[in-house]
Amino acid sequence: MKKFDVGIIGGGLAGLTAAIHLSRKGLQVVVFEKNEYPVHKVCGEYVSNEVLPYLKSLEIDLDSLRPAKIDRLQLGTLDGKTTEIELPLGGFGISRFCLDHFLHQKAIENGAQVENCTAENVAFTVDKFRITTENQELFEVKITIGAFGKRANLDKKLHRKFIAQKSPWLALKMHYENSGFPENLVALHHFDKGYCGLSKTETGAVNFCYLASYKNFQKYKDIAVFNEEVVSKNPYLKIFLQNSTPLFEKPLSIAQISFEQKPATDQHILMCGDAAGLIHPLCGNGMAMAIHSAKIASELILIYFNFENRTREWLENTYQKQWNKTFKNRLFVGNKLQNLFLNPRISNIAVPVFSKTNGLLKTIIKKTHGKPF
Asked: Are 13 and 106 in contact (CB under 8 A)?
């Protein structure tokens, strides 16, 4: 049996950031990630600049990756009405293919161990966790971080409540070559029962990622037909698709995306990133939230290890409280915004109003984002 201080299930943004943070401070960390790096993932690939001070403190220099610098937001309705404003904090566009691979290398450089395998089971007994992999290898860890994303087999095995509820959402991602799309822009455009986000990545490719009603998608089944019959009813998206060259052999997709409430601590596991709570993609803040949740968990774990009077109960309760304080209101506002944006009648009224009162839209954006940390 292999023993570590911390086991991290999932090697995405939250998991790798926590691995870097904790291993830098001398803890023995193992990360379980089923995919080999680099790999593309369904993701909006826009990150708020609020994360930059923290990443700098971990000596993570993203400038070397040359991400797209983004400082403008464009909103568009189903019938083509648009408004555009300057983003209060701004952000950057970078592919998960590039960023996750970079963080993976940093984690290894700092001494973390990465196991390219699936963690099949996790059990808590006598103040320790035992994690069993698909290869039947057994690991014993003192603390477990769950960073396994939006939906995983472990959610079922842990009997998490949200996993039993069917979700009506499907997400799809494709990279396109489109030289006319501005490098400094993130765009959100509405279509029937869904919306699409567009922004450039470090390669110059445009990430085209949308959230759609699964029930609506099933009427067409074929992605190309759905894009033609539904997505392209938005004039902006139609022109974009007509003037773009796909860079993937086929789009990436993920179904059963749940926005249901999840506990940030579950069966003594500290959940990070999308495993703890998923903000609606139109808010453009999921990647930053994943990184921020890793910071909160890592700082509390270090206190737990360094002070004998800190109990596991203290760790779990404090993490849940800090997670709620940092993210709960953002999720609430994000839910309300999605309901608004998916209603054509309301969004057709709201977008022209936003174009005349940019201050209102900036205030709403700030409600779904944090300050630099």
From this structure: no
pLDDT in tens, 282-314: 788 999 999 999 999 999 999 999 998 999 999
Contacts of 196 (CB under 8 A, 6+ apart): 188, 189, 208, 209, 210, 231, 234, 237
d(CA 149, CA 119): 13
Exposed, middle or buried by CB within 10 Å (0-12, 13-18, 19+), for 13?
buried
CB 280 within 8 A of CB 334: yes
Contacts 24+ apart (CB under 8 A), 194-198: 194/230, 194/231, 194/342, 195/281, 195/282, 195/341, 195/342, 196/231, 196/234, 196/237, 197/44, 197/46, 197/281, 197/282, 197/284, 198/240
For 33-61, b where at least 16 C-beta lie within 10 A, e where not — what string? bbeebeebbbbbbbbbbbbbebbeebebe
Residues 299-338 as b/e (b if ≥16 CB within 10 A, e otherwise) read ebbeebbeeeeeeeeebbebbbebbeebbeebbebbeebb
Beta carbons of 60 and 16 less than 8 angstroms apart: no
**pTM recorded for the entire structure:** 0.95
What mean pLDDT value characterizes the chain? 94
Burial of 233 (0-12, 13-18, 19+ CB in 10 A): middle
